[in-house]
Specification:
The protein is an alpha/beta fold and 295 residues long. The protein has eight helices and eight strands; from the N terminus they run H-H-E-E-E-H-E-H-E-H-E-H-E-H-E-H. The chain has helices at residues 3-14, 23-34, 89-102, 119-134, 147-161, 197-207, 241-253, 277-291, and strands spanning 52-57, 60-65, 73-78, 104-109, 140-145, 169-173, 230-237, 258-267. Strand 6, helix 6 and strand 7 form a beta-alpha-beta unit.
């Protein structure tokens, strides 16, 4: 663990949010979020490496990076945030950097969130976006972090159930694969960012009337044998670590070409934090995976 990573972890620990640990506080947080959830997302005013725009696709705001006409790859990036919190600056910077590095077009949907919305609306949007991307005849990568990583895996399971084409690659950064938080987390040494009871409550809200153990909500319990080549990143300092290891084992047991990258003593979604050397290594590996299609 690098010195910079230790500093980042201390900062994250000091900013630890109570609503991830407590169901009541999670409900309070969702109530506050509900008042602003349906406001348009404003792209941060930063220096970008690509052309960053807000566009409408199938009634959903989508942040795009690079015009698709002049690029070689398509990435659909589904952001994390416990299915409640909006896309954040690290996501935007990561997508911008990735689009530049691979000469690709990245599409980051500002998908509907709990508690105002459930998974159903988002599935409809992502499916239409994906079907449109298939018509462009370019390699498609589906990628996401945390809740967005869980959604990415679940959506690929959904594609398999419906006999739809899979993307060329599935890349998951600290994916939330069991929103019921039913695993054994006693062995996790430390997590500066996440808890159990609050996450479980927000996961239930996202599921709506559907059983939270349904694969569309918790892909750990779904059929995985038809998934594409899958790469997972996880840190040992995150509560989701045991579930992600279990999901990777399930992929391997079902014949999926799956790789698990474990960041020792790394925190949740460490791969998208640009200042840490471990994150830079993870980013470079993501680029290698995508550009491998040129071979």
């Amino acid at each position: 663990m690098s010195i910079i990573s230790k500093v980042v972890e201390r900062v994250l620990d000091k900013k630890h949010r109570e609503y991830v640990d407590d169901a009541g506080k999670a409900r309070e947080h969702m109530q506050k979020r509900s008042l602003e959830e349906d406001e348009p997302y404003k792209i941060p005013k930063l220096i970008y490496h690509t052309k960053v725009e807000s566009k409408d696709f199938f009634g959903c705001q989508v942040v795009t990076f690079n015009d698709i006409e002049n690029t070689e790859y398509i990435v659909i990036y589904l952001h994390g945030g416990i299915y409640v919190n909006e896309i954040r600056r690290p996501h935007i910077l990561f997508c911008d950097k990735l689009a530049k590095k691979i000469n690709g077009s990245v599409f980051a949907p500002i998908y509907p969130l709990a508690p105002n919305h459930t998974y159903e609306e988002t599935y409809e949007i992502v499916e239409k976006l994906y079907d449109y991307m298939l018509t462009l005849d370019k390699p498609i990568i589906i990628m996401g972090d945390s809740a967005g990583g869980g959604l990415s895996a679940a959506f690929c399971e959904y594609l398999a159930v419906n006999d739809s084409p899979q993307p060329k690659n599935l890349i998951l950064i600290s994916p939330w694969v069991d929103v019921t938080m039913s695993g054994d987390y006693d062995g996790v040494e430390f997590d500066p960012m996440l808890g159990i009871d609050g996450l479980r409550e927000m996961g239930k809200s996202w599921a709506g009337e559907l059983n939270p153990k349904d694969y569309k909500i918790s892909p750990l319990f779904g059929e995985v044998r038809k998934l594409p080549k899958t790469t997972l990143f996880v840190g040992t300092h995150e509560i989701l670590y045991p579930d992600i290891v279990k999901f990777h084992e399930k992929l391997k047991d079902n014949g999926v070409d799956a790789e698990l990258i474990v960041g020792k003593e790394m925190n949740h979604v460490y791969a998208i934090y640009p200042v840490m050397p471990e994150a830079k290594e993870a980013f470079n590996h993501v680029v290698e995976i995508i550009l491998d299609y040129k071979k």
